[in-house]
TrEMBL record:
GO terms for molecular function: glutamate dehydrogenase (NADP+) activity; nucleotide binding. Homohexamer. The active site is at residue 132. PANTHER family: NADP-SPECIFIC GLUTAMATE DEHYDROGENASE 1-RELATED. It comes from Qipengyuania vulgaris. Belongs to the Glu/Leu/Phe/Val dehydrogenases family. This is Glutamate dehydrogenase. Residues 208-450 form the Glutamate/phenylalanine/leucine/valine/L-tryptophan dehydrogenase C-terminal domain. It catalyses: L-glutamate + NADP(+) + H2O = 2-oxoglutarate + NH4(+) + NADPH + H(+). Gene3D superfamilies: Glutamate Dehydrogenase, chain A, domain 3 (1.10.285.10), Leucine Dehydrogenase, chain A, domain 1 (3.40.50.10860), NAD(P)-binding Rossmann-like Domain (3.40.50.720).
Length: 452
């Protein structure tokens, strides 16, 4: 009987070990399972990876730091939240990955995100390891002063674990330019150092141009690259998106620029359907709604004639050509995937991290539609974060045009790597391609370091 310490454990035994060591951490187990399926096949005849137990080591974070975050609300109540930083792997560069503030944040969610980030960052080709952090704090409905006090309290603990060559956090769900500003200010105050310790900063204080747009635009470039490789194009396609935050808004904007028609956006209350399509004026309105007024997507249907709001529902059940899940993990399940395929969807590009369940992914693969997993399709954001780190280190600032070109090239490079490792006859398995290309670089670096 194989033990988890055998060099040649099979996939079920490996996964049994992962489940035992991480009880109840379903998101983390799901993320490891998805990668392990492909990596096990790839390393079957590669003794050096077995010998060094590489996958087992990547699936065990270097460290998980958990801490208390204590802050005072506007009514002078003392609030206690839990914060984390998961430093998954720094074989190829400093830990790098966003910070999420949402009531659903827990250790499993952050471990899955840090694990995924390790492969994603490797795929970009830039020197970045994988990490992720956050807190079970929900900025929704909080005043600016409350958000500021929370961010300062969070950084008062986090600052001792990060640094420009150690670990460089950024934004994610619930953490945008406002929160990054408060956290960067607090880091600077505590350490008396101005250094590129966070990315996604305002351009007035060292942020990179194109970073706000990069994840959404990148997901559309990846979609364009997948379509192009199979002889098709974005122009004229009808697109359905979930989310209405940073990623969704910029994905919608780029789809529009490339000639597609976007008909749906959502938030956690439901989705809006706009049969006329969401044009630039409407996108700008959603930007103001979400970034300034911090309102709900349902208001869109009150404002624009012809649009409708559908509460407590997901956006996937509609005729469309392409779908971009841009909200959160496991927001698209087997039934949703079947509905998309039935309604004629030919391509899915994930702006969010792990938005499709394992069963949903199987439906897309069985139907052989183009399916770009988040770790490849949404890597444009962290890639431009990597470029922000370079600009900060050199004390320079590149212009919009140059960064736009670099983002396009980086996404093309990721697409090529996925094809290189995922092409099988006339079908490209982008999940397999992303997993293997992402794994190989990290694994080879780890081999070079010996046992640690
Ligand atoms: N920002 C970035 O650069 C990157 C982000 N990502 C991923 O993209 C996704 C979106 O991030 P981002 O746009 O930055 O975050 P934002 O906070 O800007 O927006 C998140 C959006 O998703 C919705 N949402 C969040 N949770 C749920 C839920 N449980 N059910 C339904 N809708 C939900 C939010 O609605 P509501 O306001 O109602 O909560 C909101 O519309 C995440 O998966 C993130 O990890 C990936 C790479 C980089
Ligand atoms: O820009 C970054 O460092 C992180 C972005 C992120 O959190 C992600 O890619 O999921």
């Amino acid at each position: 009987m194989a033990s988890v310490y055998d060099r040649h454990v099979d996939l079920p035994t490996f996964m049994e070990g992962v489940r035992k060591r991480n009880p109840g951490q379903n998101e983390f187990i799901q993320a490891v399972h998805e990668v392990a399926q492909d990596v096990f096949e790839f390393i079957e005849d590669k003794e050096e990876y077995h010998e060094a137990q590489i996958l087992r080591r990547i699936a065990e974070p270097d460290r998980v730091v958990s801490f208390r975050v204590c802050w005072e609300d506007d009514n002078h109540n003392i609030r206690v939240q839990r914060g984390w930083r998961v430093q998954n792997n720094n074989a190829i560069g400093p830990y790098k990955g966003g910070i999420r503030f949402h009531s659903s944040v827990n250790e499993s969610v952050l471990k899955f995100l840090a694990f995924e980030q390790t492969f994603k960052n490797s795929l970009t080709g830039l020197p970045m390891g994988g990490g992720k952090g956050g807190a079970d704090f929900n900025p929704k409905g909080k005043s600016d002063s409350e958000v500021m006090r929370f961010c300062q309290a969070f950084m008062t603990e986090l600052y001792r674990h990060i640094g420009p060559d150690t670990d460089v956090p950024a934004g994610d769900i619930g953490v945008g330019s406002r929160e990054i500003g408060y956290m960067f200010g607090q880091y600077k105050r505590i350490t008396n150092r101005w250094e590129g310790v966070l990315t996604g900063k305002g351009t007035e204080y060292g942020g990179s141009k194109m970073r706000p747009e990069a994840t959404g635009y990148g997901a559309v470039y990846f979609l364009r690259d997948m379509l192009k490789y199979s002889g098709q194009h974005v122009e004229g396609k009808t697109a359905v998106l979930s989310g209405s935050g940073n990623v969704a808004i910029h994905a919608a904007e780029k789809l529009l620029q490339l000639g597609a028609k976007v008909v749906r956006l959502s938030d956690s209350d439901g989705f809006i359907h706009d049969p006329d399509g969401i044009d630039q004026e409407k996108i700008d309105w959603v930007k103001r709604l979400k970034n300034e007024r911090r309102g709900r997507i349902s208001e869109y249907a009150d404002h624009f004639t012809g649009a409708t709001f559908h509460g407590d529902s997901r956006p996937w059940n509609v005729k469309c050509d392409v779908a971009l899940p841009c909200a959160t993990q496991n927001e698209l399940d087997e039934e949703d995937a079947k509905a998309l395929v039935k309604d004629g969807c030919i391509a899915v590009s994930e702006g969010a991290n792990m938005p499709t369940t394992l069963e949903g992914v199987r439906v897309f693969h069985d139907a052989q539609i183009l399916y770009g997993p988040g770790k490849a399709a949404n890597a444009g954001g962290v890639a431009v974060s990597g470029l922000e780190m370079s600009q900060n280190a050199e004390r320079i600032s590149w212009n919009h045009e140059r960064l736009g070109e670099m983002l396009t090239e980086l996404m093309e490079g990721i697409h090529e790597k996925c094809v290189e490792h995922g092409e099988n006859g006339d079908y490209v398995d982008y999940v397999r391609g992303a997993n293997i290309a992402g794994f190989k670089k990290v694994a080879d670096a780890m081999l070079a370091f010996g046992v640690m």
